[in-house]
Amino acid sequence: MQDLAFHLLAFLFVAAFIAGFIDSIAGGGGMITIPAMLIAGIPPLQTLGTNKLQGLFGSGSATLSYARKGHVNLKEQLPMALMSAAGSVLGALLATVVPGDVLKAVLPFLLIAIALYFGLKPNMGDVDQHRRVTPFVFTLTLVPLIGFYDGVFGPGTGSFFMLGFVTLAGFGVLKATAHTKFLNFGSNVGAFGVFLFFGAILWKVGLLMGLGQFLGAQVGSRYAMAKGARIIKPLLVIVSIALAIRLLADPTHPLRIWLGL
């Protein structure tokens, strides 16, 4: 399965680069990489596992870029990243127990709500606002919950972290983006460990795409730091809506099946 034709490997590398660029700014990179791997003929389970491997490079690359510029203190945020990883491990292990159809049915509407929130809130910028919960409460509640979701399903994880950091932690948009990438790295590590245990990783494909992710995230994170909320907000809105449309357009989406569409 790892001996794919050259044109398919090139296709996956380009897809990973684009995903890394977008994911480092607004999240949603899985919207590109997962369909790309399925198109290349990779089975679903190996697609999910390999996606976590290559996603480590993108989220890790973006995290390092933001940390170098002082937008995130990795030592201070390590407990949050560990909680995100723990939640992701539980999510990946309990994926067969959680009602996945309900998650898939509700997710597009949650993403549209996030897009409307970020698109219509006028005073949202790069300056920190009022904090509604303490870091301790945020770390013990929302972080592992979103990490759990990432292990169970995944699409939109970055958008949910962004929403939490902006609305509850009071972070500015750029700071929220930087911290989101570190927590997303944590959730990727947790889920990756589970998929590794079950042997669902295609190493050659994952490492090649990881290189594309790393390079794309370097370009994307630097662009985000240069432009700030001016680029992050609109791209987050676009990515959230595009992901919602993509999910609803899937013939296997539970809502379409329930409605007979």
Helical amount: over 70%
- Uncertain stretches of 5 or more adjacent residues: none
Would you list the SSEs in sequence order as H and E? HHHHHHHHHHHH
Total helical segments: 12
Q: β content, as a range? A: under 5%
Task: Please provide the count of β strands.
Answer: 0
Rough shape?
A: globular
* Major β-sheet annotation: none
The Cα radius of gyration reads: 17 Å
Secondary structure category: mainly alpha
Would you mind describing this structure in some detail?
With 261 residues, the protein is mainly α. Helix content is 77%, strand content 0%. The protein contains 12 helices and no strands. Helix 1 runs antiparallel to helix 2 and helix 7 packs antiparallel against helix 8.
Key traits:
single chain; 261 residues
SSE blueprint and pairings:
Blueprint: H1 6-26, H2 30-39, H3 44-68, H4 74-93, H5 100-120, H6 135-140, H7 142-152, H8 157-167, H9 173-197, H10 203-227, H11 229-249, H12 254-259
Helix pairs in contact: 1-2, 1-3, 1-10, 2-3, 3-9, 3-10, 4-7, 4-9, 5-11, 7-8, 7-9, 8-9
